[in-house]
Design a protein that fits this description.
Layout lengths: L80 H6 L7 H8 L3 E6 L5 E6 H7 L1 H9 L1 H18 L16 H18 L6 H16 L9 H4 L11 H7 L5 H23 L3 H6 L2 E4 L4 H13 L7 H14 L2 H24 L4 H5 L5 H9 L8 H10 L6 H14 L2 H8 L5 H12 L43
Parallel strand pairs: 1-3
Antiparallel strand pairs: 1-2
Helix pairs in contact: 3-4, 5-10, 6-7, 6-10, 7-10, 12-13, 13-14, 13-17, 14-17, 14-18, 17-18, 18-20
């Protein structure tokens, strides 16, 4: 069952692997996971809203590495999908495999607005993608910094309402609270975990203290009576300044500090949308270019190893997603099916008297209509049209899919098609490659499409005496007016 028409079992039926411990307000860092991911998108309104409402989906407070359960060693390739999904095997080792591949849930956020999400297990994804494995390992130090920063915020919140009343610093437990506040202020001032923001946090603390330091009412003993001058205590001497102020005012300093840390938190969340390492450190992968259906087919393959798609356009998107995540096995499968169908479609059109332009403008659609209706073409009857549309309209296709278009246009040697359709849509680098290919074919009669591999270079048969050597070819790159 390579293709599914609209009857694909919806992955939202899978039991959810919830991750509620990525939030400042959640204390328990234990995560109960199941074998399958939750694919029911979570809308913004459904997400839990914390009191700071700035960075939902943050990392666990635990200092345990996000990939601590995956040591990066290659997993035995003879582990099949049945063993992974059933959690058992004939030798009784299934439960061990289950534990090995389903330990660390991470979040994939997708959609144009990144307002949908699903859970996937890092160990399983890393098994098929060395790229993901490297990214999360590179994010390990930052992950630990995030965890330490989160712990600081949690402790600071305990000194603010509603956890701590405004008059608590004058109550029976004031000494403990004052000592805790003093310790946290000094810790953030000297060694805030996120190095990039350390100076910013330090300046915020010094400014908050300086505001109090300019008011005589904030001193235990006013400077005029104590016999000291403010200039003798510069802003950087935080510890000495705190000793002169009423300890009850520490709560106000803590508030200003917490506001600053929450701004850092919000900024890091936004930055993670464009920074793979920061996203990994937060336990996330951002895929704004992909829709829900493409993610579903990817997740279905990942957890069951069943290859499914709806049509050629969907297959193009699935291939691009696989390449984006570095899942080479799936990308190769997608490209193989797509390439074969693409070439077969063009060959059929040529055999029935249509040129490439006729195929693309719909003139040859009747050749494929019956195949689409009865399903005999596996949803790929319009593969060539879908591939061209994907490359020319959906910007940023993979180079492998783009190569299918370049080879087809070069084989057609239709410069009219090139000028009308191709030249306005492709970037300069792709156009240079296409013109090189077309130049090498200009002195030959139009053949049927060659059954060649994607990304293959010009075959030795084409390097005849009639075709100029590569050394004598003009600089086509300089002739592109783009």
């Amino acid at each position: 069952m390579d293709r599914v028409r609209r009857s694909t079992p919806h992955p939202s039926n899978y039991r959810a692997a919830t991750v509620s411990n990525f939030d400042d307000n959640v204390r328990d860092t234990s995560v109960q996971t199941t074998r399958q991911p939750s694919m029911k998108p979570v809308s913004v309104s459904q997400a839990s809203i914390t009191d700071d409402a700035l960075m939902s989906g943050e990392l666990q407070a635990s200092s345990e590495p996000i990939d601590a359960q995956y040591n990066g060693e290659p997993v035995a390739e003879d582990v099949n999908a049945a063993q992974l999904n059933d959690g058992k095997s004939e030798d009784g080792m299934g439960f061990g495999l289950y534990q090995q591949f389903y330990k660390t849930p991470i979040t994939i956020k997708f959609g144009d607005k990144l307002d949908e999400e699903c859970i996937v297990h890092l160990e399983l994804l890393s098994r098929y993608s060395s790229q993901i494995q490297r990214t999360f390992k590179n994010a390990q130090i930052l992950h630990e910094q995030y965890a330490a920063a989160r712990l600081l915020r949690l402790e600071l919140k305990e000194l603010q309402p509603p956890a701590c009343a405004t008059d608590a610093f004058t109550g029976s437990h004031k000494d403990d609270l004052i000592q805790k506040a003093h310790t946290l202020i000094m810790k953030c001032h000297s060694s805030y975990p996120l190095v990039l923001y350390r100076d910013q946090v330090r300046e915020r603390i010094e400014k908050a203290i300086d505001v109090l330091f300019q008011d005589d009412r904030c001193f235990k003993v006013p400077p005029s009576k104590a016999g000291f001058k403010r200039k003798d205590f510069p802003c950087a001497e935080v510890r000495n300044r705190l000793q002169l102020l009423f300890p009850q005012l520490f709560q106000k300093i803590v508030y200003e500090l917490l506001v600053s840390l929450l701004k850092v938190k919000k900024k890091e969340l936004k930055a993670a949308e464009k920074d793979h390492v920061k996203a990994a450190a937060q336990g996330k992968i951002f895929l704004p270019k992909f829709d829900r259906r493409t993610i579903e087919f990817f997740m279905f393959w990942l957890y069951t190893r069943e290859f499914r798609f709806e049509d050629a356009h969907q297959l193009c998107k699935l291939h691009t997603l696989a390449e984006e995540l570095g899942v080479r096995d799936l990308a190769a499968t997608c490209l193989s099916r797509l390439s074969n169908a693409h070439l077969s479609t063009i060959e059929l059109a040529y055999a029935n008297g249509y040129d490439l332009k006729g195929l693309l403008d719909g003139s040859a659609s009747k050749l494929f209509k019956q195949g689409i209706q009865d399903g005999s073409t596996d949803g790929l009857a319009d593969a060539a049209t879908a591939v061209f549309r994907y490359v020319l309209i959906e910007k940023g296709p993979s180079e492998a899919i783009q190569e299918l278009v370049l080879e087809a246009v070069a084989d057609s040697r239709d410069f009219g098609l090139y000028l009308e359709l191709i030249e306005p849509a492709l970037n300069r680098k792709a156009l240079a490659r296409l013109l090189q290919k077309m130049f090498k074919r200009t002195k030959k009669r139009q053949p049927a499409p060659r059954d060649t591999k994607v990304k293959s270079e010009i075959s030795s048969a084409e390097k005849s005496d009639d075709v100029p050597d590569s050394d004598s070819e003009p600089d086509l790159d300089s002739g592109i007016g783009r």
